[in-house]
Prior knowledge:
By secondary structure, this protein is α/β, with parallel strands linked by helices. The protein has a single domain (7-149), classed as 3-Layer(aba) Sandwich (Rossmann fold). Helices cover 36% and strands 20% of the residues. It contains five helices and five strands. It is globular. 25% of the residues are buried.
Amino acid sequence: xxxxxxRVLIALDASEEADQVLEAATALDPRGADSYxxxxxxxxxxxxxxxxxxxxxxxxxxxxxxxxxxxREITDSVRERVARFxxxxxxVTVLFGRPAAEIHAxxxxxxxxxxxxxxHGRHGLPQVMLGSTANAVxxxxxxxxxxVRIRG
Length: 152
């Protein structure tokens, strides 16, 4: 079977379960898609922090250094993970912001045919309390979305 998907955006988090998403995405076509793109979105730790007068002091805040270090660690981890699945590490992009919005924008920028994202399958109150990135990506995506049920 030849896949109709030629630009596949794989949206990963930094968890061990990300391998399940990579397995599903790379199994779509045994010969592989022409182009896999991988993104991880890190919600900014320092957004909205401001002083008493409303002026932002995030640029001097110690969290800025922590955010940069977390970004480096996550980028390295995701690059190592995707390489095990035959995806070039230079296809990894780490973004900052609201995950669904950043995934939508990146999918549009690369003209993705498909977004592959993991879902824990939470329903009801846990989904409301924790939010559902997969659900938010599904609604408003510029292309097809494949949600991979995370086992375990």
